[in-house]
Amino acid sequence: MCRVVCGNANVCGVAASFTYVDYPHPHVERGRRILAAHPELRALAKPFPVTALWVAALVAAQLALAVLIGHRPWYVWLPVAYVVGATIDHALWVLIHDSCHNLVFGWRTGNRLVALLANVPFVFPSSMSFWKYHLLHHGHLNEVDFDADVPGVTESQVIGGSRVRKTVWLAAFAIVLGTIRPQRLKVPLLDGWTVVNFAVQGVVIAALVWGFGWAPVWYLGASSLLAVGLHPLGARWIQEHYVFAPGQETYSYYGPLNTVAFNIGYHNEHHDLMTIPWSRLPRVRAAAPEFYDHLYAHRSWTKLLLRFLRDRNVTLFNRIVRASHGPSR
Q1: In DSSP terms, which residues pair with 297 in a beta bridge?
Q2: Bridge partners of 321?
Q3: Burial category of 45 from C-beta neighbours within 10 Å (exposed 0-12, middle 13-18, buried 19 and up)
């Protein structure tokens, strides 16, 4: 059963509140049904250590680019940051995501170390807080108090359907995630690993500035903001859980950018079977098409980005949310 609660009846044709539901999210049950129908998929649920090599290679490439072009004029390094740097950083976010699920190594500390390494080019210490909040996202999907992926009511009201405000919001999305939403959640930001994350990033940035000046840091910072912001790859934050089909709260993307995004577009598949790493997610859909072919899916992140920015009917309120049940659930 679901109900739509309108917080602003004066907004005609535009969602003025979230859609509240009182049923559990569908992924646990669908995952059980998928494994019952296709028990061979259990063999895919194991770590993929090659991910660590990808992290090392991408971090080295991003740091090398920062040193090589950071001192060039902004009209040289900024386009490179948009096209190349943001793509690398987005890929590293995906690999941090796999680390959170312990899908790189079989031991948790090893996965945390991979996530810390992947964070190095971001400038901002982000991987350990993401680790914490992302696992809450899975355990408390679309619960306003515990899911950092859900925009707050005030945040959604302020942005509304305005094209300008949505553009600014997406451009600053990394700042929204890092500073605004943690204040709303009923989970503390700081813990031991987060402190380690801050310390590591402090050493990295100090070493870069000491060795090469501030120019590489500007390139790295721009790449970090663009990777989760006003960029075709940034559209995946809209793709994953904003409602585009009635009653469906999670969406996959099946398009060519999965090649450079380590299959993060297979989002329904990931939520259904969280123990399968990025390299094997396409095999889930291939093996169990009867569970996915009927679901609405996006084919172009670029088209989705433009639709989100231009269509006044697509707002942050286009979300299915449920009551919070606390972190012990």
Answers
A1: 252
A2: 20
A3: middle
What pLDDT sits at residue 190? 75
- According to DSSP, residue 280 is labeled G
pLDDT number for residue 188:
74
Count of Cβ atoms closer than 10 Å to residue 76 Cβ: 13
Residue 198 has pLDDT above 70, yes or no: yes
For residues 31 and 37, what is the distance between their CA atoms, to the nearest angstrom?
A: 10
Helix (H) or strand (E) holding 297: strand 297-298
pLDDT over 90 at 84, yes or no: yes
Residue 118 CA to residue 160 CA, distance in Å, equals 34
Find all residues with CB under 8 Å of 125, minimum gap 6, and list them. 119, 194, 197, 198, 200, 201
End-to-end CA distance of the chain: 21
Angle of CA points 293, 272, 325, to nearest 5°? 130
For the purposes of burial, counting CB atoms within 10 Å of the CB of 293, is it exposed (0-12), middle (13-18) or buried (19 or more)? exposed
CB 215 within 8 A of CB 71: yes
- Sign of torsion over alpha carbons 95, 99, 105, 109: positive
Q: What is the DSSP letter of 143?
A: B
- CA gap 127, 298 in Å, rounded: 27
Within a 13 Å sphere around the CA of 311, how many CA atoms are in the beta-carbon half? 15
CA distance 325 to 15: 25
Looking up tokens 């012990």 gives: 328
pLDDT bin (cut points 50, 70, 90) of residue 15 is: low
**What is the spatial distance between Cα 191 and Cα 193, in angstroms, rounded to a whole number?**
6
